[in-house]
Amino acid sequence: MNILKFIDEFPTEESCKNHFKVAREHEGITCKRCESTNHYWLQGKWQWECKSCKFRTTLRSGSIMEKSKVDFHIWYKAMAFMTFSKKTISASELQRQLNHPKYDTIWLLMHKIRSAMGKRDALYQLAGSAEFDEAYFAKATPEKIKLKRGKGSQQKSQVAVMAESTPLECISTGKKSSHCGYFKMKVLNDHKATTINTLIAESFDEKCIIFSDKSTSYVDIADYVDAHISEISNKKTTKTTLKWVHLAISNAKRTLLGVFHKIKGKHLQSYLNEFCYKLNRRYYGESLFYRLTFAVAKNYR
Known about the structure:
By secondary structure, this protein is α/β, with parallel strands linked by helices. The protein has 2 domains: 3-122 and 287-297, no CATH class; 129-141 and 150-265, Nucleotidyltransferase, domain 5 (2-Layer Sandwich). The chain has 10 helices and 8 strands. Helix 3 (72-83) crosses helix 5 (103-122) and helix 5 crosses helix 9 (268-280). The chain starts with a helix and ends with a helix.
């Protein structure tokens, strides 16, 4: 999707509403009262009516747009700008591009879209061969906290980084390499084994083979997957066994640092959601925008 195609396809509020209706129906409408999935569309009301209990569902109800008063056209413009390039865009820049009077409205809208990205990726588990490691991301330090001399100007959040890593071998040369698949990044509240175990159970298929370093927090990983192979962390490990997670870490840090000056710890997960969502769909091309509209339209409850 580029700006010229977007203008041609979504010139008005009604064109955005019609497309969002199709996206909602593609993802499925569920009645809040009886949980039925069979509905009539009432064109005059712009609502769905449940065939069982006659409860009506609005166009926004149940989606990420629920309770939002922002026009559909603004939502669609925001999704378009957030998918125009591999890198992200700041709320202040998007506000300028949309000529919108309120920064807070655009900031909240973008975080809702990022929330949809994270919820969409949470539906899938990593499978096959995978890498697991952790990294530290800088976060804004509250004004009340004074860091000691030599400790830097920012605090750090611990993030678990996961990546599918399919082993490959060239038939002609016999050289071994790997291909990266899906990625996940999760901000951790602590580094305890119980926290890691919960994350492993949620993020990986039970038949998965996980490669990691020899952290003491990873001792129980083998109980949740088919196999767990750990190696001592060193320069060689980061270039071979844990190649893709470290590449994702460096790219994520470079992306966030190049766009945002300060990121609060409580919002870091939101920015990582966007990074992983776009990284996982790096080959989608122009269809990335349409995939995002489906993610926003889905009911995740």
